[in-house]
Specification:
The protein has 219 residues and is mostly helical. It has 10 helices and 2 strands. A two-stranded antiparallel sheet has the order 1-2. Helix 1 (10-23) crosses helix 3 (46-58), helix 4 packs antiparallel against helix 10 (192-218) and helix 5 packs antiparallel against helix 6. The chain starts with 9 loop residues before the first helix and ends with a helix.
């Protein structure tokens, strides 16, 4: 069966379709995503399939080891904890620095508004995208290219974590939006400690829900 793509550039449509299938677990963790399988499923050119796979590898939704096909990463408890730890170190310090100036960029506010709008629907890829966009916009507003690159690497790896939280309904998106607002409020109030605490509490909430879900799955 050939899977039909939405009307847009074939490459972008292919990436969007594969991304949605990965985030919704239609392509499960550990399953290889090869150029040949993408060509067969979508009837696209091999080069288009290769470019789409490489794009998703860059986004952290696929991983490729030496001489191996790209696969959807399998995240264990240790990896999830480390991802949340690393992200918390970066984001909490960034929020402290932003709060010292009471600085919320227009991009961060726009991303927050977009997430809040997405939270009212059930489009999982959109919710994950806007969640990532919000936190990246805050970090990017510090105008440190190296810090932004480090944060991008970590949060891209976390897209699968964010998707699992949503796909298994572990957290209400509206609740996440309120936690985002708490971060923004603390920054605007010029309260560095509260901004950092709000950011860490936001991550700890999602992490605890995801780890508990993973533990049930192993039982």
């Amino acid at each position: 069966m050939t899977i039909r793509l939405a009307t847009q550039s074939v490459g972008e449509a292919l990436v969007a379709s594969l991304r949605e299938r990965i985030l919704t677990e239609d392509i499960p963790a550990g399953v290889p995503v090869t150029e040949a399988s993408v060509v067969e499923a979508y009837s696209v050119a091999r080069q288009t399939a290769k470019a789409a796979i490489e794009r998703l590898v860059a986004e952290g939704l696929l991983e490729r080891t030496t001489h191996k096909s790209a696969r959807v990463p399998v995240l264990d408890e240790r990896q999830v904890k480390d991802l949340y730890f690393a992200r918390g170190v970066i984001e909490s310090r960034c929020y402290e620095l932003l709060a010292e100036e009471g600085k919320v960029s227009s991009d961060a506010q726009t991303a927050h508004d977009s997430f809040a709008a997405s939270a009212e629907g059930d489009d999982l890829p959109s919710i994950v995208y806007e969640d990532v966009r919000f936190h990246r916009a805050l970090v990017d507003s510090l105008d440190s290219p190296r810090l932004s690159r480090a944060h991008e690497l970590i949060i891209n790896e976390m897209r699968l974590c964010l998707a699992q939280v949503q796909s298994h309904q572990l957290l209400d998106p509206a609740e996440i939006a309120r936690e985002h607002q708490a971060i923004l409020d603390a920054i605007r109030d010029k309260d560095p400690r509260q901004a950092a605490d709000a950011g860490l509490a936001h991550l700890a909430h999602a992490e605890s829900k995801l780890l508990a879900h993973m533990a049930v799955g192993k039982a």
